[in-house]
Amino acid sequence: MAQETDRELPLPPFFDPDAAGRLWQVPFQERAEQAAAWARRFGLRPAAEDAERFVLMIVDGQVTFCLPRGELFVAGRSGNGAVEDAIRLVSFIYRNLGTISQIVLTLDTHRPFQIFHPGFWVDAAGNQPAPFTQITVDDVERGRWRVNPAIAGAVPIYDDLAALERYALHYVRALHESGRYELTIWPYHALLGSVGHALLPIIEEAVFFHSLARQSQPHYEIKGANPLTENYSVFRPEVLTGPNGETIAEPNRAFRDLLLAADVLAIAGEAGSHCVAWSVDDFLTHLLPYEHDQVEKIYLLADCMSPVVVPGAADYTPQQEHALARFADAGMHVVASTTPISAWPRRLVASSQ
């Protein structure tokens, strides 16, 4: 049977769904005092005492993806997808404060000159590519797009233009040979220190409230800081080696091990078609020791993620749906955040006495 802490709690009175789509400052001290009172009222114990370690991972719940004016707002087909997802996700956190042991958050983290940002590339006339431009192997081989000469020496490992150009050609070839996609130039986004890099305030507020109510330190995992490779998945950069076999990046095994220590792992975030899907795929395919009991403890909150949809340009809804179906076939559970945790299918419970 389910643990006593699986009981659902009411939403705290300060929770305002209408604030999900706005930028504002969380009143931390006030929320800390309310969290302590909430813990006393409902008898919430420190998370360290949980018989079952329940981890919630939120992928890239940042302003750049989750606020309508963010640089890469994940609109979904509804046009307001990430905002709606955040409301459901935050409600899930508040209702399940007594069950969630720790919240783990990935933070997409970039600087201006990265291989997927416009400033890395120029055409023959010196013009930078527009956001959402696709750069193919043929484009680089024929010189339609080449490394911006002005950034030579501005990125690590390759300290001259010729070496950086060899790497850029190797990179687009490696992406093509992987069979997943061509290089996409994204708008400048999630820049370290910017407003876009910060958590969406309504998510930040809920994470802080949980932390104080359960005496549980949240874990923040940086991804995407390497300028020489994309890093959609938190577990594994897209390209790991250079043209001569030199190491560019490495899989994030330490973070994998942190998550594997959980008894139950719930996953939500943005975008469901990209960073969520590819993180889960890497967890399943490349990094997870393929044991069925490990796979079964993973629950995907399908109503707390949305696909990338760019009207008139791209709709990745089918890709997200296909990914969720594939993960379910592998033994993971696709669930709704509104379904009580005690009713989740085949849930692994550390103590059933």
What are the main properties of this structure?
alpha/beta, Rossmann fold, 6-stranded parallel sheet, 10 helices, 12% strand, disordered C terminus
Describe this protein's structure.
This protein folds into 2 domains: 44-107 and 194-300 and 314-337, 3-Layer(aba) Sandwich (Rossmann fold); 118-184, no CATH class. It contains 10 helices and 12 strands. It has helices spanning 28-42, 63-66, 81-95, 137-141, 161-178, 201-214, 253-260, 275-287, 292-296, 317-330, and strands at 54-59, 102-108, 121-122, 134-135, 146-147, 183-184, 219-223, 264-269, 298-301, 309-310, 314-315, 333-335. The strands form 4 sheets. It has a 6-stranded parallel beta sheet, with helices on both faces. Strands 3-5 form a two-stranded antiparallel sheet. Strands 4-6 form a two-stranded antiparallel ribbon. Helix 1 packs across helix 6 (201-214), helix 3 packs parallel to helix 6 and helix 8 (275-287) packs parallel to helix 10. The longest helix is centred in the middle third of the chain and has 18 residues, at 161-178. Mean pLDDT is 92; it is low at 348-353.
